[in-house]
Amino acid sequence: MRLAVLGSGSVGTSVVNLAGEYGHEVVALADSSTAAIDDGGIDVENALERKAGGNPVGDHDPDAVFETDYDVLVEVTPTTLGDAEPGFTHTKRALEADRHVVLANKGPVAERYEELQDLVAASAGSIRFEATVGGAIPVLSTIEDCTPEAVTAVRGVLNGTANFILTRMAAEGLDYEHVLTEAQDLGVAEADPSFDVDGTDAALKFVILANVLNDGGFSLEDATVDGIENIPGSALQLAAEDGRTIRLIGEATRDGVRVGPRLVPEHGALAVTGTQNIVEIETRHAGSLASSGRGAGGPETATAVLSDVGRLPEL
Questions:
Q1: N or C: which end of the chain has fewer CB within 10 A?
Q2: Do 89 and 162 share a structural domain?
Q3: 228 is in which domain, residue-wise?
Q4: Within this chain, do residues 167 and 22 fall inside the same structural domain, yes or no?
Q5: pLDDT tens, residue by residue, 40-83
Q6: Can you give 223-272 as a three-state secondary structure string?
Q7: Is-catalytic flag, 51?
Q8: pTM for the full model?
Q9: Of the listed 51, 92, 106, 205, which one is catalytic?
């Protein structure tokens, strides 16, 4: 497949680095202001060296990406809420041109799912978005294999930053603010960590899961969301005395989405530590299926993107 990659952050650069191993060719790579484009395949090494050196990734306007001879638009620009722009428009342009789209950007799938499905119905192209939920963990493909109709609920831990903070608070008896500073120093938490610690990131992922289970009907505003900012260290100590701990747990069902701190058994499946994620999929015919691993990171998320590309039909 010939890939046009929109977004040259950690996921985008990992996609273009790994594409050759998966048998794909990158014909375009764009950041917010420039693009490297070559219908015969861009010089990936040169483009990434330019980017790393603080120079433009290429000599073209990003809009020119849509005029290239590509098979799959890989949309890995940052997630935005509300109107999910510019990711939604990028996706729309590709589908209207009868091209495939693979998304790592959660916004369009969480906020405008029904509109995406209408675009797909009118297009020769299709859309996949495994990378929007759980990084390399095969959540959506497992649901697809079971069929969404046979899945009754999906629950788990889908934010590594929040999980790291809660793990450290429990292990060391430290307060939230102390561990948050540590997480920022280690690069586990962003300078503005609100998207992770207030539950928004996890909620977006579970909204996507609810949309998959219900064939749409949900956006972020439909989710009940609580974060971890107000959990005192004493709460984790009290939980430990009872053989339990606290994790930021999300759940998607036919009825809706809930995300918030929950008590779980200290040595139970949901008590993953550090930046690990875990997802439990409840099914009618196969029981409970669990998968865990790193739910974020450039190479990890890129593997989900490229696995999706491999599942696409030839145009």
A1: C
A2: no
A3: 141-294
A4: no
A5: 999 999 999 988 888 899 999 999 999 999 999 999 999 999 99
A6: CEECCCCCCCHHHHHHHHHCCEEEEEEEEEECCCEEEEEEEEECCCCCCC
A7: no
A8: 0.95
A9: 205
